[in-house]
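Input:
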Amino acid sequence: MIINRNFIFIFLFFLIQFFSFTTHSVEPEEVLENEKQETRARNISKNIRCMICQNQSIDESNAAIAKDLRILIRNKIKEGNSDKEIYKFLTDRYGDFILLKPPVKLITLMLWLIPFILFIVGVFILFSHNKKSKNNKI
Amino acid sequence: MKKQVLIIPFIFILIILSFFYLLIIDRNPAEIPSQLLNKNYPNFETDLLLKEKKFIASEEFGKGKVLVNFFATWCKPCRDEHIYIKNFSDKNGIKIIGINYKDDPKKAKKWLKKLGNPYSDIPLDKNGSIAIDWGVYGIPETFVINSKGTIKYRHVGPITNEVYKKINFLIEKIQ
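Output:
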């Protein structure tokens, strides 16, 4: 019986986790009729940070400002603005912080390079450690 | 070989030190610096809460020092900072514009009647588009604009005694 109950809990946990990946907050009235335009709007929204709930994109957030920004992006797409123009409009007002993926700039260079540097250091350490082990065996 | 092994604790210590450095330096991750600092005010045109005419920003800014305050009756911190906004309005040489953000005009009129109206004009931001243009993400927010129409200061959140002193000092200093 206990095993069954545990199993149900684990099953429910994974079920909730599964659906949490697919949630988004776009409301039906916001959706554009043109599918291509809507896809563009969704893709931009997924990369725009909600400034209130900072680790969520505006696509996922229920905050009022996130909704305003989603509507603004859709209006700009309807007006014929390119993705680049929309990103520029937003970063001109909120800075690069509004982008969930920081752009590669001199100031963010370390952010992009550190994982590669650590990887190389890791490989180097691994390699020298292996070499040492081999020598010891001999 | 010894030198190579020393790299590991060195990197580890460096990461820990950077972590502690970020902890102790004076920074608030919730506060995002304004992109509009030292730039011209974003222009807008909208209805006014208490007057039957349009508010045209270009006719109001750039003639003297202006304090712009985004507020709403449904925002509790706006009520808390209202006393400081009133104190600013008592000072000479600065015009106070209160942008009423996504609010019910009836409630706003009642609110101002009860708490007092420190604003010389109250433009309405019915759908939040003016706020987005100003890079606002959470109200209340306050901006100080010099007589050339350049934004010199921005504060996110309610004005506290400390912020009040800071803004006062700035108003005296700027042209």
